[in-house]
């Protein structure tokens, strides 16, 4: 076996990275469940109120960015460990303003028959 391979196998930093990959893999699985929960709640909001909940959209944006950070770390794209080793991902600029398509009034044909 090549000497550099032996050094890499014995390297503490390599094994520490593997440990973080396992831990972030678990965090990824939990985050997926959170996203699934948000999807179900958003479907219910959309069905009962006609539009999704803006707070949940913002929360989901943060979770989505956290998942992206995890994937980038565990696939060795970056060496920066995601949250909690850095700040929680910030909202995208487009989410800081309310969505224009969600604020449009319903067309007369979309309104319930009792409101016409």
UniProtKB/TrEMBL annotation:
Annotated TM spans: 21-48
Disordered, as annotated region: 97-116
Pfam families (alphabetical): DUF4389
Keyword list, A-Z: Membrane, Transmembrane, Transmembrane helix
Superkingdom of origin organism: Bacteria
Name of the protein described by the UniProt record: DUF4389 domain-containing protein
